[in-house]
Specification:
- The complex is a heterodimer of chains A (about 400) and B (about 160).
- With about 400 residues, chain A is an alpha/beta fold.
- Chain A has one domain: Peroxisomal Thiolase, Chain A, domain 1 (3-Layer(aba) Sandwich).
- Chain A has helices at about 25-40, 55-60, 65-70, 90-100, 125-130, 145-160, 165-175, 195, 225-230, 260-275, 280, 290-300, 310-315, 335, 340-360, and strands at about 5-15, 50-55, 80-85, 110-115, 120, 200-205, 205, 215-225, 235-245, 285, 370-380, 385-390.
- Chain A has a 9-stranded mixed sheet with strand order 3-2-4-8-1-9-12-11-10. In chain A, strands 6-7 form a two-stranded antiparallel ribbon.
- In chain A, a hairpin with a 4-residue loop joins β11 (about 370-380) and β12 (about 385-390).
- Chain A is globular, with a radius of gyration of 19 Å.
- Chain A starts with 6 loop residues before the first strand and ends with a strand.
- The model of chain A has no long low-confidence stretch (mean pLDDT about 95).
- The relative contact order of chain B is 0.15.
- Chain B has one domain (about 25-150): OB fold (Dihydrolipoamide Acetyltransferase, E2P).
- Chain B is extended and about 65 Å long.
- In chain B, the strands form 2 sheets. Chain B has a 5-stranded antiparallel sheet, with no helix packed on it.
- In chain B, β5 (about 80-90) and β6 (about 95-105) form a beta hairpin.
- The chains are: A alpha/beta (about 400), B mainly beta (about 160).
- The interface of A and B includes residues 74, 120 and 123 of A.
- Bound molecules: zinc ion.
- Zinc ion binds next to loops of chain B.
- Zinc ion binds near residues 51, 53, 64 and 65 of chain B.
Amino acid sequence: MAYRNRVAVLGAGLTRFMRRALETPKELAFEAARAALDDASLEIDDMDAVVSVTAPDAFDGVHMNGEYLADGSGARGKPFMRSYVGGGSGVFGIINGWYHVASGHFDTCLVVGEEKMSSALPHPQGCFNAIYDQFLERPLGVNLLWIFSLEMNRYMTTHNVPMETFAKVAQKNKRNGMDHPSSQSGISGDYTLDQIMDSEVMAWPVQRLMVSPVSDGAGAMVLASEEFVKKRGLDPVWIEGVGWNLDTSYWTNRDLYYPRYVEKAARMAYEMAGVTEPRKEIHVVEPYDPFAYKELHHLEGLQLADKGEAPRLVEEGFWDRDTETGIPATPSGGLIGVGNPISAAGVMKVAEIFWQLEGRAGKRQVKRSVQRGLAQAWGDLMQVGTVVILGKQS
Amino acid sequence: MTEETPSPERISQWRGNIPIHHRYTVGVAGQRFFAALRDEKVILASTCSGCGARFLLPKIYCERCFVDTKEWSPVKGPGYVKTFTLVHRNLDEEVLTEPVAAAVIGWEGVRGGIVHRIGGMDTSQLRIGQKVEPQWREVRTGGIADILYFKPVDRPFHRGGA
Ligand SMILES: [Zn+2]
């Protein structure tokens, strides 16, 4: 396939993530967008277009939330587009920004992801009930914890994974998150496996310390064309591949032990990036980790481990930040260690790969050298996969 | 397409709602704006640190320059009606006994404005350009309803001289 432009990443910015922010959604969007522009040493007048991502309107409690967020996202007087694929939205926003620039229509695009979940009472889980079928499932009081526990059980039973392995994933991400300046208070930390495994059962087998929290926050990134980059003599990180895929929304009709849609999204991105051996060519990965088992589930979908092999690799430290022979997974701390303001969390994952490739991840910088990395998110009725591959070519 | 039968009880249906409500924080700019309404009976505008424009409702950023706003100061003198309507039905489309006058109110030298009700006058005489000022509530709680309505500061315009 031919694109008019190669697309570079020039900057990223995040707010702190927190349980309850004083800022309005617009103010959160501004803080992140301003930080991304500052990171890229650019101004709003340098941006040709703006892309917004935010998950269900019901969280912020504003219908047409994209339009509401527009001025805080820097979109006044500019071409503006919101995209929304549930939890997959954050990474999809980068994909949307990519094709704004790749199309040749724009030289630059500012992508802003925002979520303010604390507005919804009594609990944002109530919003999730309304994403399900209104006749078959909603009357049963189904929410996200239900459906994840059904999926987790299917995964752990199929591959005979002990609970302790999932606890190790949560432990790693909560430790990694301690070094992230955006980490939500009380979420990251040096937890023992016993503390994690003894935490409250929310919907068996899902337990409190293996689930990401409810969060407020925003994240933004600045994308630009090759021509823009050359004019300024920059040597940036490039978007090498993008992929997205949607499986059936009849989630009862899929075998939940394996995320086919993530595999399809990943294969699309690998093909575009010219990656034929992902386990050798992907050097750092940010898989979507709203639940500890999801990190492993997604690593398998991403073809970075065989089916059922990701849990075994946990025991070898293959996914650890300081691995020298493995692939560090979620060096940011992820949704479990930093927080989960849904759309902003996806942007945070891509931002982490960007900072890792630029060598600017500070204490979170992985030990092995990295030329290429992958960020992935997932969502909707747990059937959408979104993937972005970034690379640094010297 | 199949039209619904005129007897709704014969249609199989499930009644549901999205079981949440909201608590909206007024935000960093809102904290200051609404506290000033409540405590000082003033309407604050913010000034952009880039282009110098003053605007309502105040924000922590200028949407044009996309930089922080720095100074805040009360709007001075009367506002004026930029446009208005007379509303004859309520939110649920029920007929109102008295039409409600709603207007966009601006101030000289300030970008933007406030949407509010107009009262204290025969609203059939309301015209664009009418100068208005707030009618404050006695007990204020830090919300837009701390202003009961905007009322004329001089006689409404009359058609055809007089
Ligand atoms: Zn300005």
